[in-house]
Amino acid sequence: MANKQSPSEFLKQIIGKPVIVKLNSGVDYKGVLACLDGYMNIALEQTEEYVNGQLKTQYGDAFIRGNNVLYISTPKKITADNP
What we know:
Elements: H1 7-14, E1 18-23, E2 28-36, E3 42-51, E4 54-64, E5 69-73
Antiparallel strand pairs: 1-2, 1-5, 2-3, 3-4
C-alpha cells in the first residue's frame, strides 16, 4: 500500500525532479520542476511540449500560470516487477 501524504508534501518532495504538467487544454509539458507557488504557478527547466502525445517544442525554461494546470505528476517508476 502506498504511503499517504498531503498534496503539499508531495509537491515539496518533487522539486528538482522530472514532472509532467497537464494543462486544461490537453497539452503536456515535461521537465524538471524548478519551483511553484501557492497558486500553482510553475517554473520548469529542460522543458518539452507535447501535443497529442507528439513532441512539438523544446524550451530551456518555461513558466506556466497556475489556473491553466489540470495536474502535476511524476513519471512512472520502472522496476523489475513493472517494466
